Amino acid sequence: MVGNLTDPAILFFFVGLLVGAVRSNLEIPAPVAKFLSLYLLMAIGFKGGQALGQTGVTDAAVRVVAIGVVLALAIPALGFVVLRRRIDHFDAAAIAATYGSVSAVTFIAGTQFLTARGDAPGGYLTVALVLMESPAIIMAVLLATWARARRHVTEQATVLAGVHGPPQPPTASGVTAGHPVPTPPMSMRAILHEAFTDGAHLVLIGSLVVGAASGPTGGRAMAPFVDGVFTGLLAFFLLEMGLLVARQLREARDVGPFLVGFAIGMPLVGATLALALGTVAGLSVGDLALLAVLAASGSYIVVPAVVRYAIPEARPSRYFTMALAVTFPFNIVIGIPLYHAAARALVG
Amino acid sequence: MVGNLTDPAILFFFVGLLVGAVRSNLEIPAPVAKFLSLYLLMAIGFKGGQALGQTGVTDAAVRVVAIGVVLALAIPALGFVVLRRRIDHFDAAAIAATYGSVSAVTFIAGTQFLTARGDAPGGYLTVALVLMESPAIIMAVLLATWARARRHVTEQATVLAGVHGPPQPPTASGVTAGHPVPTPPMSMRAILHEAFTDGAHLVLIGSLVVGAASGPTGGRAMAPFVDGVFTGLLAFFLLEMGLLVARQLREARDVGPFLVGFAIGMPLVGATLALALGTVAGLSVGDLALLAVLAASGSYIVVPAVVRYAIPEARPSRYFTMALAVTFPFNIVIGIPLYHAAARALVG
Amino acid sequence: MVGNLTDPAILFFFVGLLVGAVRSNLEIPAPVAKFLSLYLLMAIGFKGGQALGQTGVTDAAVRVVAIGVVLALAIPALGFVVLRRRIDHFDAAAIAATYGSVSAVTFIAGTQFLTARGDAPGGYLTVALVLMESPAIIMAVLLATWARARRHVTEQATVLAGVHGPPQPPTASGVTAGHPVPTPPMSMRAILHEAFTDGAHLVLIGSLVVGAASGPTGGRAMAPFVDGVFTGLLAFFLLEMGLLVARQLREARDVGPFLVGFAIGMPLVGATLALALGTVAGLSVGDLALLAVLAASGSYIVVPAVVRYAIPEARPSRYFTMALAVTFPFNIVIGIPLYHAAARALVG
Amino acid sequence: MQHVKRLDLVVGSRVATRFLEALDTLGLPHRTVIPGVHGYGQHGPRGSDPFATFDNTYLLVAVPPDRVDEVVAALQPLLQEVGGMCLVSDARWV
Amino acid sequence: MQHVKRLDLVVGSRVATRFLEALDTLGLPHRTVIPGVHGYGQHGPRGSDPFATFDNTYLLVAVPPDRVDEVVAALQPLLQEVGGMCLVSDARWV
Amino acid sequence: MQHVKRLDLVVGSRVATRFLEALDTLGLPHRTVIPGVHGYGQHGPRGSDPFATFDNTYLLVAVPPDRVDEVVAALQPLLQEVGGMCLVSDARWV
Ligand SMILES: Nc1ncnc2c1ncn2[C@@H]1O[C@H](COP(=O)(O)O)[C@@H](O)[C@H]1O
Ligand SMILES: Nc1ncnc2c1ncn2[C@@H]1O[C@H](COP(=O)(O)O)[C@@H](O)[C@H]1O
Ligand SMILES: Nc1ncnc2c1ncn2[C@@H]1O[C@H](COP(=O)(O)O)[C@@H](O)[C@H]1O
Ligand code: NA
Ligand code: NA
Ligand code: NA
């Protein structure tokens, strides 16, 4: 289970964490970080597409993807039910969406881990990654709309205004002064557009298609880029993720013990669900373990990007911080090896 | 002819086009795009230099370069003659410069295409690329100076002021109000400096020289960078080009049917000229086809960079848009395979 | 000795110098340059760590590192003694720190040069690089504190205010007007924090540890990144260094003949010291030569970063310019081959 | 030198085009755009994550003084919907 | 539209957090931050080196007019210690 | 706090040094420079192409009030030759 801790990419994540913790001036420039995140999506999409192009749509592919979609609906529903009793409904919807959706970086780390241990998952897992991204967002937006309607009825509207961020004299920010009730957020149409045209999402899908379409010749031409330098660039990116997590941990005032517990418990529940369904469906060790990784991961890219405008009442200092600062490191360090061990025990 | 459509780099261009068309939020950060464009120039220059260093200055090299220079003078002259009857003389000069000069990215895509099909062109084509960049600019600036003198005589000066961009109340932009006649643009000296010290231009020349000077040992050390990851980085760059073309197409109000026709017709004329001269000169298939690609391509880097200041009266919304949004995709998708097929028919 | 001049990376440094000299518009975007500098540190750290992990802490390692630390204390002391008679004490302290510390890029160029000639230095040299970075900074800060105390006594404080930069009417910058005496600069605690948590420093140490910890499997996974594309990315980075040196040379008004002499003489003295101590200690050719390179190099990253706030009285237009615009090119072009030849003569 | 009003807007990068389109509609296409801006406001921190999810964009727009009320009226609902800051001040155009 | 004071600060990137923390302490966390800014001031050139050693950061802070003196008093010692520019001007908040 | 005039210039990146050199000539070397700025003005769109051909650079210069006319006079011909925007406003220097 500690095998992960000699993987250079994971080790660089720890370097980032430590460097961030001592408040070094180290900063990866934002354009570089963005380039690396797009590169990773492109590489993983292309490789998935290549694998798919070789095997075609197999029976296993269909089963994996079907289970993935089931999980993408079940997990946010379950999450919301648990959360709504303890916290604000808007936060509950946003957090449910976070855990219902998936993290591409965790997926990549999982793929690396499994492949290095001889349990390479199928290319169709990338399709599962794509399809598991959005359902939870849509569900959360609907839940928030319902919560908004309810709130309006009970006229709590004004009470909730201005809860975000540290106190700032209203005259300083001005906008709060005259307009305590924010106008309704984005239309459903705009939300769907945002969710489905998100750049990261489309790069992943596009690369998947290109990978499938470009055959072995294309694969060979792209190999030094999508395979050769992959571990190195992933390591660089995880260095930045470590810095980011360290920074985010410092801002974690809004995440109390209950939410920390949720940020670790929910992944375990999701992974268990995935392992159960996947074992029944007779998946291979690699497929099973990576599906568990997907189920356990929480989104800190697409979901916050959409939810920020779709559910403005929810606090990023909760949903974003939980996914990035608690669940992501948990999965990277403990989760992935754990799900792999479980998959081996169940199938191998 | 559709062989190009399984090339991953070209496919990523289409991904970019589609992602741009659905107005995704995807953006390649500008510093990354600039890095990639410099990388491509560096790689292509270095590889050309290496090839040159191995073969030395052959007879074929001399013929290719000579024809290239002839084309770089003939094409803008021809273009201006055709355009001046239909459009403003300043726009005509700028567009003539655009098509008289060349596009390095098209050159790179052409080289990739031909090499993958066993018709690798010689390293001296890179010298042709360098030498074909500037003559058209100088010619266009002279034509614009002549047009400016003529305009002054007919006293149309004030009529032309303020034609650029959507209407903006003059009091908002201020500068138009008091000064309807722009002062004369850059001096010829400044223009020559701009044209010959352009960063992209110098990186290309520099890399060519370094490639030639650093021999096989240097070549081996650089290979993973200039060859290995080349297709991957080109794919990434063409993704950005696709996004850019999609964006530019949305701004294409100033390009009517005549100019669209020119943006496709002129490349075909240029390629035909190149094929004719090259066949007479007895070039190989690869050299012939790539010379046609050069002739057919329109510049959207060096020319706009210089012409923007040298011919401020011309509209980038015309010359830049035509080269980038019409001619570039045309050449990438249809032109390159077409010129290759023609070269094979003529020589093979 | 001119062998260095067919190395593509070094040649690209000259391309950068020339391109900068003709005042081209070429610019490497700052985020890209920063990425490249971090990449180089990561690669060199990782490779050093891998080498260390294989050999363990050998006897040679201990000797090299010990000599390195001795040099890191002796060189700044010597430098200050020489400089204090001719120039301002604050500038003297800052310049002494510059030459007492080391340049990672020079180290990298030296490693490349030696490895290409079959005299690869040991991985522990990277440890020497790390340990030689900071002592000179601490020493310089103490010297500056002493100088500040002395200045206070002689009440010259107000005379020195406002010496920096070209003249600017005091009312323009305002801040000088009312407050001629700057408050004391950073506390010692803050300085130590800055020196030891500098991002570049920590990335290097972190990568060293990761390299040592991740074993041969990790090494193989990282190889295409830290080895494969290394020369290419170094070449790109040295292109930027060339541009930077050219720009810096234009601002070199504050560096007179004496300081230019120092910027060449001090490296030669430092290298001689290193060669002497290293020969006595029985080092191999590669270790000896690279230790001389370290001793000869001057810091233009960590030292200016810290000294700027720790010794605000010192002029970056002196210490930074000397290290970057004189010593760096001198070492790259003449120094490295020279120290190598000397090491061969002494040991081989 | 003429008097103009300068508007300094800081809005989420993903919604910046909505502000720019509103200005286009008013026939005021001239603007300056600084990408990659970070910030902290009522909606918490923005920017400084590697996915630019929370990036801000800075818009500087100089408009004729007599059009400022119209512009403000057009932008205000957008500001309320998606957040952001808008400062108005006086300047002279050279 | 209310009156605010806008502060435009340009300070070394390595010390920018010290300014921001001072503002936090005053209960004024709202701000806009532009990284990667170059400049030239009393401390010579800043920015435009590949190690970002000398990078500046631009901070824009809108504060209520009645708090501006307090803010300036808090920032002034920092400006004297580590350098940087701070401009104060008038604006209206939309 | 002293009164200063702030100049906000937005000019093509390729010609920005010409403006800066003009300021140097006037003995006003202090400035803040933001690279990589996009925009739209009389010369059409700027920035947002991968070759930075059309990039703008933002220059912020604080000058003593009594020198502003001289500065404007020096920059105006340049602005007319190569385009760009220049706003002048009032500020106080902390
Ligand atoms: N008082 C302020 N001063 C400066 N910038 C602000 C202020 N308030 C908000 N902003 C900027 O506007 C952005 C959006 O604001 P908000 O919608 O309130 O989160 C923030 O991320 C900041 O960049
Ligand atoms: N007069 C000025 N106008 C514009 N920016 C300035 C001015 N003075 C200083 N700055 C900015 O403030 C930074 C730090 O100033 P200083 O500490 O004086 O070197 C400089 O690098 C500039 O970016
Ligand atoms: N009214 C305006 N408001 C804000 N920025 C402007 C305005 N007009 C011009 N600019 C900026 O100045 C640059 C050059 O202007 P121009 O030379 O008119 O194209 C543009 O690309 C914009 O960034
Ligand atoms: Na999940
Ligand atoms: Na052409
Ligand atoms: Na040294």
Automatic annotation (TrEMBL), chains D, E, F:
SUPFAM superfamilies: GlnB-like. It comes from the Bacteria. Pfam families: P-II (PF00543). This is Nitrogen regulatory protein P-II. It comes from Cellulomonas phragmiteti.
